[in-house]
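User: I'm new to structure prediction. If I give you an amino acid sequence, what do you actually give back? Let's try with this one:
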Amino acid sequence: VLPNPSAGDVWVESAALVQELLITDALGRVVLHALPCTDRVAVQLAQPGMYLVRASIGGVVKVRKLAIQGP
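Assistant: Good question. You get back a string of structure tokens that encode the predicted 3D arrangement of the chain. For your 71 residues, that looks like this:
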């Protein structure tokens, strides 16, 4: 997940294909659910806050924290 922290534009990158991408906010609400089947996904988040990014890659789920900063 790059860059982190970010102003809102983020890339999720992997050496293998990202099969499923799920981003939730600090309250657990789903902000994005996608099935990209690519190794690089562009994401734009408008609201500042903390997010969890869950990516299913090769049958393994990886979780990363993401901070979106305000203006």
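You can read the tokens as a compact description of the fold. Here is one thing that stands out. The first strand starts at residue 9 and ends at 25.
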